[in-house]
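re: that chain from earlier
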Amino acid sequence: WMIVNNSSASITVQSSGSNTIVTLPAGTATLITCIAITGTTKASWSVSNAGTAVNQSGGTVSATDMAYSGTFTGGTDVVNIGSNQFYKDAAGNVGIGVVPNAWGSGLQAIQSKYYSLWNHASNNVAQFSNNVWVDSGGVYRYVANGQASLIQLYNGGFSLSSAETGNANDAVSLNLAFYIDSAKCVYIPKAPFWQYAPAPTSKSTTATLTAAELKTGIINTTGTSYTVTLPTGTDLDTAFPGVPSADIALKFTVINTASGTVTIAVGVSGMTSLGTLTVATATSANFSLRRTAANTYVLYRV
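^ sequence. v structure.
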């Protein structure tokens, strides 16, 4: 027997011996099968899918530990679980802990209180934002009062944009701050910008630089005349793991305040040079150390 409880209260199904077989909450159903014709106890009956929800308009459908197998299907109406812990709107956008904003048609968004992740169904642009949503007219808007930022991934590239403080639902004026294209070219439109600058390396006599000393970017020489040798290619590769195998460069400057000429020499392994490597007293010189292969570099005077 299929028993459907369309009432507003729970019902109890009992055997002929007044033994409870199952209790059905309002708006649920179950399938009961007789497995012992002469029995009058609960064990005489098999209960299947107890607490399965049935179609109901309005009211509350409740079930305890209801399980299902296969594919759970339904219409495109709103799904709200746990008072917005999980919220799917009619357009298919998902809110985690919030009701999602009215995102524009064709956008597929996952939104929480502080971030949104979305893309357009017709292109390959993935977007990740803080305090930004997009309306039906394609206008980027603030989710709440405050600042906003946006990361976009597309065509093998990566961009970062930001916006000053605005009010909820006002249009956001995002400014591109950083972009890397698929050819690994970097574009920074805003200037000036701050660059990491550790304390310079200082030398006063003949020495071989370590990779850590070289990557400070400035070599300050004092004393008299002597030679400063660069690290080997192997030392540099060990200090910079994970970099591209070729066509990258480390730039540095030598500032000679010594009383004589300082000569820059390349390491004995994996190093060659091009250009004058001497730096006269009271002058400076710029160098570019270009990686051409694993453990292999060319030093240029620029």
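Helices lie at 211-214, 233-239.
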